[in-house]
Each structure stands twice: as C-alpha cells, then as structure tokens.
C-alpha cells in the first residue's frame, strides 16, 4: 500500500495511518482520494482490528488546501464534484467497520477537525487545538458536526467566529479521552488500540456498526437493534470461546467466526 499523502504501518492487528502532506497536512484532491481508498480497504481487511489516525509534524491537519478553491466557482460542476469528494472522504472514515482512534498531535482545523469527528475515540497532545475557521476565509461549513458534539451556544460561537478550543478545554468538556504531553500521545493511543484489538473481531464489527447506526434511531428501536446483534453473536464460535475463557479465567483465542 503506497500513498503520496499517507503513511500506513501495521503491527499486532493495528493499522497506524499518518497524514503526511507537509507542512500542515492540508487536504487536497489526492489526499481525499487516498483517504477513501485506504479506509475502504482497511474496513475489509481481516488482519486489521483497530486503526490509529495521526499526523506528521506538529499539525494534525490544517484542513482544506485553500489553493484548490479559487478555480472551483468558475467551472460548471466543479464545486459539486469537489463537495462530493469532501463528503465521501469523511464518510470513508465514519463508515469504516473498524474502531478508529484519532491521536491528535497538533492543531485540527476545519476539515482536519472533521477527520477527528469522523473517528470514534479522541486523544490529543497538550499543544493541540480545534477550530472551524472557514468564516475567516469567507466560507461557512461544518456546523452540522459542531452541533453534534458541542452545546448550541458553543457550536455557534465557534462557527461564527472561528475561535480555537484548546485540548485542555476539550478534556474539561469531556470530548477527548486524554490530554497528554506530546511524547505520551502515541504510546497511550497504541495501548488503547491493543486493548480494542484483543476483542472478538465479530463483536467489534457489530459494536462499531451499532455505535453508528443507533445514533439515527429512536431509543426503543435502537436498543432492539442491539439486542438483535446480541442474539446473532450468541450463535458464533467466538462468543462461545469468550464466555468459556471468562469462566476458565484465561485469555480467549478468537477465530473470527
């Protein structure tokens, strides 16, 4: 798997995906196409149980590469194609069947913050901060995601002003799992990834699917959906092995069936 804007490493059923478009990991057409290709593949790979997403350098991602913008409005259909690519690259992460830990090594701005919000679990270095600064370049996008995680007042203040929210404030709000010195970020994320990767792969897949799908359902229907997953899992070899290992006080050996 060779990419121009991404670095991919595999270890112990964990894929570490590093955004690699110096100097600030700004997102262009090539970057987004590679995100879609990679995450679609990782979603289907049996040798990957968990993904850690991080960035090179001191910036996670500064968002969209503004140099692509000026030529879009003048060409019929260009903005539609661009917007579709932005949406689907984000959806490739959000819809990936594997749990994704965002290890945010620095500022995550605009579409960079979007990559974080498409991930499942967020951890950040102490010098990271988060912003939707589109308003500062005469654009407006992203409030859909902000209002999913922040209060109405905070989301709209961020959207209308482009204000920065520090990793420390994100931790205080309970939106990130940890706010750590830079040298502790990846060890912490990898430890969590190893714990996730040790679980039944079938149960993980259904757990990820349920976490995403139940957001769209009324509570009654969502819980019934989860109960259906439990019934289906109870018929698998992996669930029987997990329960037997629990009773025998040993580590389970999963076969993925």
Description:
This protein has 257 residues and is α/β, with parallel strands linked by helices. 47% of the residues lie in helices and 14% in strands. It contains 10 helices and 9 strands. The strands form 2 sheets. It has a 6-stranded mixed beta sheet, sandwiched between helices. The two termini are 27 Å apart.
What's the average pLDDT? 94
Rg (C-alpha, Å)? 19 Å
Record field, number of beta strands: 9
Give the neighbour order of strands across the main sheet.
1-2-3-4-6-9
Helix content: 40-55%
The main β sheet shows up as:
6 strands, mixed
What overall form do the CA principal axes indicate?
globular
Structural class: alpha/beta
Written as H for each helix and E for each strand, in order along the chain, the element string is EEHEHEEHEEHHEHEHHHH
Range of strand content: 5-15%
Q: N-to-C terminal Cα separation, in Å?
A: 27 Å
Poorly predicted runs are none
Number of helices: 10
């Amino acid at each position: 798997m060779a990419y121009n804007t991404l670095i991919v490493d595999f270890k112990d059923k964990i894929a570490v995906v590093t955004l690699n478009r110096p100097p600030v990991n700004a997102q262009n057409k090539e970057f987004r196409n590679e995100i879609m290709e990679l995450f679609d593949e990782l979603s289907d790979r049996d040798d990957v149980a968990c993904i850690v997403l991080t960035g090179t350098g001191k910036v996670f991602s500064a968002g969209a590469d503004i140099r692509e913008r000026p030529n879009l409005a003048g060409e019929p259909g260009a903005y539609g194609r661009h917007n579709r690519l932005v949406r689907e690259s984000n959806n490739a992460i959000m819809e990936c069947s594997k749990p994704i830990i965002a290890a945010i090594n620095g500022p995550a701005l605009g579409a960079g913050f979007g990559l974080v919000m498409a991930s499942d679990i967020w951890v950040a270095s102490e010098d990271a901060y988060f912003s939707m600064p589109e308003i500062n370049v005469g654009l407006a996008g992203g409030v859909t995601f902000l209002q999913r995680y922040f209060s109405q007042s905070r989301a709209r203040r961020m959207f209308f002003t482009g204000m920065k929210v520090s990793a420390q404030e994100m931790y205080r709000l309970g939106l990130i799992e940890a706010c750590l010195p830079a040298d502790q970020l990846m060890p912490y994320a990898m430890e969590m990834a190893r714990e996730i990767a040790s679980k039944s792969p079938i149960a993980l897949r259904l757990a990820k699917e349920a976490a995403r799908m139940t957001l769209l359902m009324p509570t009654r229907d969502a819980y019934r959906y989860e109960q259906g997953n439990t019934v289906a899992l109870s018929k698998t070899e992996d669930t029987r092995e997990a329960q037997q290992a629990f009773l025998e006080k040993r580590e389970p050996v999963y076969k993925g069936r």
